[in-house]
Design a protein that fits this description.
With 388 residues, the chain is mainly α. It contains 13 helices and 2 strands; from the N terminus they run ααααααααββααααα. Strands 1-2 form a two-stranded antiparallel ribbon. Helix 2 packs antiparallel against helix 3 and helix 9 packs parallel to helix 11. The N terminus is likely disordered.
């Protein structure tokens, strides 16, 4: 397996793989550890109303405990992406009002200004585009459009190595896809693909994608010959793969079916979901290191939420067989709602900001983060559409 994590506490090198060693495919868990065991979570979804009730509880708890809606960096922007998904599902004004207030408080600007090339800074553009689509006013997307236009047309358009870590795919693929669609300008899609191809196939030498496993390294430090788990296994960070899955889903939701690179994006997402299906825990969660169940074992919400989101989307879009993948999403949702969601709507077991399994540990029932809540809202909204 091959993947990494977010930025956080630094983990020292645990050992080296032999230079040029191939990354092993993700091993299937033993039958005793798979979700298809006695006492495992159910394979069917709850009702749409039941799903929406949990989503409201989690969203309302976050809003009720965060009178200040926060900054416009990637973590809070990911929350607002999920919240606006919930608004589209429920049409409840309080969700739109809270999101609009956040965006207006930042003047719909990007964290580092329009000259930024950093994918994290572009994540807020997703929520701004959502708000624009609900209530079109050009000022809402002026900053994100200006910034991407510079990368595509005027600011070193030949430079394609900006996305050097896999999280960037979630942060920035969707805005490029959406501006290209809005302006009917395929140059944005071409630039998206050029940046994506560097991340996938060139970053660090071979690229961060491991075709033999279908999973991704977070960045070049985790490529073969790099950082290992304490037991000498690859570090395949759960949330890093979650960011990749989420980026593919949001991009595929935007691009026309006939767009040139859609087949590759679909194939890559399906390959990742197949690998994830093989390593889902018995309780419905995924471990923080997908390649080593003994490496900081325990439930983790953010990666699991993104995997549920992506799996539910793939079922809805008929990219994967419903009979094989709906149970994966249902078990993940059951684990999240019975273990991570508190009675008052607090969402626990979220690994905080980091870049690997060791980051922001320990993870437990009382650890949460804005981006984890956003991922959970995305997951539930996609499942509600399946259940409805």
């Amino acid at each position: 397996m091959t993947h990494l994590g977010h930025s956080g506490r630094h983990m020292g090198r645990r050992g080296l793989l032999a230079a040029g060693a191939a990354l092993a495919a993700v091993p299937a868990l033993p039958a005793t550890a798979r979700a298809a065991t006695a006492g495992a979570p159910p394979d069917g979804l709850p009702s749409r109303d039941a799903i929406v009730a949990v989503l409201r509880r989690v969203a309302d708890h976050w809003i009720g405990t965060h009178a200040d809606p926060g900054d416009n960096q990637w973590a809070r922007a990911t929350f607002f992406g999920g919240l606006l998904d919930l608004y589209r599902l429920t049409r409840e004004a309080r969700y739109l009002d809270y999101a609009r207030g956040w965006a207006e408080g930042h003047d719909y600007a990007l964290h580092s200004g329009v000259t930024t090339r950093h994918a994290d800074d572009h994540c807020a553009g997703q929520a701004y585009l959502d708000l624009y689509e609900l209530e079109p006013e050009q000022g809402k997307i002026a900053a994100i459009e200006d910034s991407l236009h510079r990368m595509v047309f005027t600011d070193r358009p030949e430079k394609n190595d900006d996305w050097w870590w896999d999280d960037a795919l979630h942060m920035a693929m969707p805005p490029f896809a959406r501006i290209g669609k809005l302006r009917a300008e395929p140059a944005y899609w071409d630039k998206l693909y050029a940046l994506y191809t560097h991340t996938r196939s060139a970053e660090g030498g071979p690229g961060l994608y491991a075709p033999d496993s279908g999973l991704w390294y977070r960045d070049k430090r985790f490529l073969p010959g790099g950082i290992l788990s304490p037991d000498g296994k690859p570090v395949v960070w759960s949330r890093g793969n979650g960011w990749v899955a989420g980026g593919h889903v949001k991009t595929l939701k935007t691009l026309p079916a006939g767009a040139r690179h859609v087949p590759e994006y679909r194939t890559t997402l399906v390959r990742e979901l197949a690998a994830l299906r093989g390593v889902q825990r018995a309780d419905g969660f995924w471990n923080v290191n997908l390649a080593d169940p003994a490496h900081l074992p325990g439930p983790e919400t953010s990666g699991t939420s993104f995997f549920v989101y992506a799996t539910a989307y793939a079922v809805r879009a008929r990219l994967v067989p419903r009979e094989q993948y709906l149970p994966v999403a249902a078990r993940g949702w059951h684990g999240l709602t019975t273990t991570a969601v508190h009675a008052d709507g607090f969402l626990g077991y979220v690994q905080g900001v980091g870049d690997r399994p060791e980051s922001s540990q320990p993870v437990g029932p009382d650890t949460t983060a804005d981006f984890g809540v956003g991922a959970f809202l995305h997951a539930g909204c996609e499942l509600a559409a399946l259940a409805g």
